[in-house]
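hiii so my PI (J.) wants the whole complex modelled not just the main chain, which honestly fair. so below is everything: two entries, each one labled with what it is. i double checked the lines twice but i was tired so who knows lol
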Amino acid sequence: MTVVKLFRPRKTSPRLERLRNLSLFVNLTAAELQIVDGLLHERDYLAGEVIFDEGEEGQAIYIVASGEVLICRQEQGDGGQATQLDLNEPAAFHPRRRQGDTGRLAQLGPGTFFGELALLDNSPRSAQARAATACQLIVFFRDDFVGLLDTHARIASKISRELARHLGARMRDMALATGVHQHL
Amino acid sequence: MHDGPPANYSMDESQRGSGPIVWAAIIATTCLLLFFFQKILWLVVPFLLALILYYFLYPSMQALIYRGMSREGAASLVILGFLALLSVIGVGLAPWVTSHIAGWQDTVIGYVQGGLQLLDSSLRTLEANWGPLARAHLADTVAGRLAQGAGSVTDHLEPIAVGIMAWAPSLMLAPFLAFFFLRDGRRFQRFLGGAVPNAFFEKTLYLLYEIDRTSRAYFQGLNKLTVLDTLTLAAGLWLLGIPGPFALGLICAVLAWVPYVGSILGGLLVVLVAATDFPDAPAMAYWAIALFVLVRLLDDFVYMPLTIGKSLALHPLVTVLMIFVGGAVAGIAGLMLVLPVLGVVMVIGETIGVIVTDPRLMARHRHALALRREQASADL
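here's the output for the full assembly
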């Protein structure tokens, strides 16, 4: 009986419930979530803090647990280099100023994720991510995801499917925005 | 304002190789660590064994977690299973050991005397064929010095037995440590990651993964190397007709974990067995020596680059030089530890070098600090 009890699915904790509500992990079972939970990191960012820069090699996907995150193109200085003026300006000013920028691409809320291409390859980040408000992010590293592919292919395939859906939706949106939608 | 390089950063920058200052720091740190480790060998050896055990048992624990067990339960079950297996093997071997233990001293003495007889007969053959050696009475001189310097075999057996008894308690630490590595390894990694500022977080986590990958590759490489060495030696010894080829091959392969010294000990063991079990056929001992040299060459030039060398991505020249440096700094312990220590220090050193010399990351960190200061003093 004890052995059976050991393998009985555990009660889902609030933390696991919160993970299950994230679109990336929506199809995972409690046991699968438990494994994924062991791989995740939590980070707290203040409004205006840079999460990653455009051009930086991506190592992880970020999931917004609370707060808002701004995705934007970095301002280009001489020679195509990103200017660094923005880091030295008053903190609270950043989000508001950034929201009015022409480089602003999106503002993401709780449950959404960004930097997802980092799970697939090590190509440079295509935009800068910056905390629009104080936020808590869940970080999932590529190496952990690759490890999952080896050890728990079922979990990795469920996550991959959600990722593919997300990318597909984004491509459709882009195609609709640009009017190129023949093959989508 | 910063006049540093652009925000664009890629790990390609870290892969272009470290400069001489970083490498000097890596080598100096490795030497210091080896010197320090030599002083706490009672802890370092069980720690290394625990790491090997951890990488060996980790897949089983993951399988149990996947089937719904908690990490704590899975770690406990895996370690208990391993200890139970050890106990079963111990209980199974106990009758055989107790029936043979009385004869072990005679067996060891017999093998040593067999080796001495081979040496003596080889030297006398040389003397018979080469005048200058005969005039120098080489065989008599060597035999006299061995008898004078080496003393009785029993004199050496006692300190070895006492040494094994003294090491046994600290070796029992290995499964205990492995259990905590299995149970809390991930928590420790998150704890370390949590202490790192946001700006350096991705790079630091990448560093931790690299260390894990390097260690895993090294220890798995070591296991593969042991299997390859055992199989090659066992096949060769079996072809020569030497008794117990697999056991001898395995002992030699494990001894080879200690670079150079271990190989010499392994070779000596094979020669002693050949010389004792075939006293009338000295050619058998020479064939055993030839086989051992062949396996060593295969090991150094084929197996090791394919397994351990590949895992650490070290230049062969650096590998060989560092083995000598390790031996000079910390003796046999240094020979054994130098490659894994160098591998870990190399990854840490190179990544710290990349982080500290990246002005954009440093600027982001200063910016985050300013934001936190501002938040802390907002209502003051």
